[in-house]
Amino acid sequence: MNAGVARGRNRRPSILLPLLALALSACGADPAGREAAAKPAAAGQPIDRVETAQRLNAMRGQAMAGDQAALQQSVAELDRDLRRAVRLVDPERKIDRENARVAAKSVTGVRSAVWVDDENLLAIVDRNAQRSYGTIDAICTRLEPMGDTLGVVVNLQSGAARNGDELEILSRNCELPPGERAVAQSHRQIDVLPPQVRAQHRANADAALAGRDRSAEREESERIIQASTPEM
């Protein structure tokens, strides 16, 4: 009996060591990599009817048993899930703007963050590559413990931009696919240059590069005009 216990004790280090190594490797992992891997909550997903029926049955049982605390919690959870399914922001869980701004600045690569209005958070990143949906995910994940991120649209702009295309702002609601917004949430245009203007500038530049050089003709025309114009 004692020998068996001793063997069991001897086996423990061999089991704990791999777990300890795994925990240490996770602690030493690149924080930027962990941020990029984290995915925020997703709204707009349909409610599972079977699961909802089971939850309603559980709520009936809680009501019959007189368990008011459990019933209130179940009602609150169901209300939250229904709101997210129909993309309706919960006004009772509004995120504190200043705390959110500070949290956004703590994300790797974010140089500064400012609220444009009650819904739009504008963040400037250090490099063009950091103007990505991965950075938006990292910001939204930081904001989740603060309240309902369905009410937040994150806008990213590169601080290293050198042209109009690189200045383009990448926007997304924290819990919805690109281009979608929550109920009653506006599609605010925050870009310095609208997409149509940038496209026209690109077209003009391409046309100028494709056309032949007419500078010599212009110089000759100007010389003729000057020669034929009498002095005043």
Automatic annotation (TrEMBL):
Residues 211-223 have a biased composition (Basic and acidic residues). Residues 1-28 form the signal peptide. Keywords: Signal. PROSITE patterns: PROKAR_LIPOPROTEIN (PS51257). Residues 202-232 are annotated as: Disordered. This is Lipoprotein. It comes from Lysobacter firmicutimachus.
